User: Fold this.
Amino acid sequence: MVIRNSSPDGATDLAEVIAHQIARRVRQVRTARGMTLGELASVTALSPGLLSKIENCNVSPPIGTLSRLARGLGVSIGEFFDTGDPDPGRVYFPKGTRQIVSGRRTSLNYEYELLISARKKRDMQPMIVSIDGRSYKFGLQEHPGEQFMLMLEGSMDYIVGDKRYSVLPDDCLYFNARLPHGPKLNKAQRARYLVVHTGT
Assistant:
């Protein structure tokens, strides 16, 4: 997992350090709640082996997995991206404060940009997802809550349950995130879209 600020002067080695900090944060939250990997696995339906890889920064979890982890631990996704924000209740998040997460160690190979920060528990988690069909490998995910999507750029198909939607700029989707869902692109396609999902 690679995390970087959206400003172009962020250093690669610093991004790697932050990635390991996030992996440690997942472990810290779990141990602070007195949970074993097995116990967390039972409430998230994720295997202990996968959880161990996430905590050791060997696997970059996609959004759905992060959401399941957050729900299982009783926190918001923002808890894993601690920025030390002294005012977690603020409503203004300038572009320069955003973080971008790249799934370098996962086959899904997409990037998501967190639009809000801080560890305050929030009812909604907005982000911008960018996918390049040349490197993306199709996969479905499911997690608690509901999800809203607004296509910003490009085109793709998006699978929700047993339905397939051809999505173009300004198209929207809204669905129960417990249904298996995910983007499907051919190698010539690229997509950039807004996602807002709830944790419950």
Q: What stands out?
A: The first strand starts at residue 2 and ends at 5. Residues 22 and 80 are 6 Å apart (CA to CA). The chain has four helices and ten strands.
